[in-house]
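User: Is it possible to get a 3D structure for a protein together with its bound compound? The compound here is harderoheme (III). I've pasted both below.
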Amino acid sequence: MPEAVVTMDGWYCLHDFRTVNWTAWKQANSEEREQAINEFQQLIGKWEDTEKSKQGSHALYTVVGQKADFMMMILRPTMEELNEIETVFNKSKLAEFTSKEYSYVSVVELSNYMGNADENDPEIQGRLKPILPKWNHICFYPMDKRRQGNDNWYVLEKDERAKLMYAHGMTGRQYAGKIRQFITGSIGLDDWEWGVTLFAHDVLQFKKLVYEMRFDEVTSRYGDFGSFYIGNLLKTEEVPQFLHV
Ligand code: VOV
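Assistant: Yes, that's possible. Here is the predicted structure of the complex:
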């Protein structure tokens, strides 16, 4: 039987996508809107404090296209904290004007194919508990490794999988400084096997990287993908402008 890889797992992760009901938002009076915006900014302020004390991290992006209007990506040490954050948002004034579009629950994951990584190494700890970059663009999509006929990732021996992952890593390394990738594992946690979250300064680099990877065997033979979500950075101070009507 092929050997499973022992993963190293870090902070839990919630991707939370919301759509604004602009009609209801426009009908609200200006005090209500101001209250909703202030409360949301205070909430983000708390996330910023948590990030400063390295107890978690977050990213806030507007979403381009009709899949949602904005997304919150939250990293925390426990699943309970993720749940608390979404509940606080759900009880907020702004939530009265938004609908839940999609969410994804996972955990920051590093696979240790070479078997030589030391989980206590500060560099590895930094990757398991990362501070998310506030780069201009985000790209999120869930994915599976295929299990179909001759293309079944889960019957490949570990050495073979390690070789394919190595080639994958080599393609990715060419994008150093242009793209930062965060792989979150979600087997047993959500509907797909992994979440892929990419950050870039230049949005076109997502297309170039994802296209180039389509030719890596690990993707061409074994990659199955869900919906793609693309977004632009929403800074805390830009929230009032984004919500201005
Ligand atoms: C900047 C781009 C980039 C780079 C450098 C990179 C490197 C690496 C390395 C070195 C490793 C293995 C060790 C680890 O760190 O886990 C991985 C692991 C993984 N990757 Fe990756 N990946 C990138 C980018 C990158 C993308 C764009 C995708 C989506 C695939 C695509 O075709 O759309 C992806 C997927 C994954 C997955 C699902 C895993 C876990 C697979 C498993 O079976 O465990 N990844 N990845």
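Residues 110-111, 143, 165, 168-169, 172-173, 175, 179, 181, 183, 194, 196, 198, 209-210, 213, 219, 223 surround harderoheme (III) (CB under 6 Å). The chain has eight helices and eleven strands.
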